[in-house]
Write a structure and sequence with these properties.
about 250 residues, about 70% helix, globular, 9 helices
């Protein structure tokens, strides 16, 4: 499929998957719409979903590299923030391109998840290394992005594993069934939103403000992971055992 931009945009409006119950506000209401705009253009230009994933990775890891290579300033913050925002928008676009063109598959899903897995760990570690290199903050504070790297990695893995275990036992999430996620829940979990983290880097030049905001994001994300882990563990305990395959 390679219609006009307007035709693609209109078609994408009817090819959206449901929002997960835990989807935070920016990701749900802003990033998905940005991704739709980019996906319509990507289809018009003949890009494949994997190529869109590559564009997403290019923007994201450019922002990550800048954190290590350039001292914190308003200009570097603007560059990092915009790179991360565009990377996240293209991350939403690749799945929309796949659904619209019906060219998605396990390989594309695998690639998307692997890029995300690298992203959630490398971003806080790059921040830590950059701040250490340029002595931007007291050394003791660097434990915050280190904790963030661990918490983000655990959250990403737990979400993917939980969803896979549900699927393997025939339990379908509300997103897959077209259920609507409560908007109030989306607003309440905003501090854990990766999109909000991207926006926060725009304030990198105001280091004291950024440090406070980033610390609050890490604390909120940590509390969310602890609460979600308990809930998911209980849910996994209520699932039926995996089917035994007899030889």
């Amino acid at each position: 499929m390679s219609g006009s931009y307007r035709e693609n945009l209109r078609a994408l409006g009817g090819a959206q998957k449901g929002a997960a119950r835990s989807a935070p506000a920016y990701s749900r209401f802003v990033n998905r719409r940005l991704g739709r705009v980019l996906a319509a253009g990507a289809v018009r230009w003949g890009l494949t979903p994997n190529q869109v994933t590559g564009v997403s990775a290019l923007f994201t890891f450019t922002g990550v590299a800048l954190l290590v290579l350039v001292p914190a300033s308003w200009w570097s913050g603007l560059a990092v923030g915009l790179a991360l925002i565009l990377g996240y928008a293209f991350d939403s676009a690749d799945g929309q391109v796949a659904r619209l063109t019906k060219t998605g598959g396990p390989a594309g899903e695998w690639l998307d998840h692997v890029v995300d897995a690298v992203k959630v760990v490398s971003l806080p570690l790059a921040l830590m290394v950059g701040f250490y290199r340029f002595e931007t903050v007291p050394t003791a504070w660097l434990v915050v992005p280190l904790v963030h790297a661990v918490v983000s990695s655990v959250l990403f893995f737990a979400m993917i594993l939980t969803e896979q275990l549900r699927r393997s036992r025939g339990v379908v999430s509300s997103a897959a069934t077209g259920g609507r996620a409560p908007w109030l829940r989306s607003v309440l979990v905003v501090p854990t939103d990766y999109g909000v983290l991207c926006l926060l880097f725009l304030l990198l030049g105001a280091t004291s403000v950024f440090v406070v905001g980033y610390t609050l994001v890490v604390v909120a994300t940590t509390l969310f992971v602890l609460a979600a882990a308990v809930r998911w563990f209980r849910e996994m305990g209520s699932l039926p055992p995996a089917a035994v395959i007899e030889s």
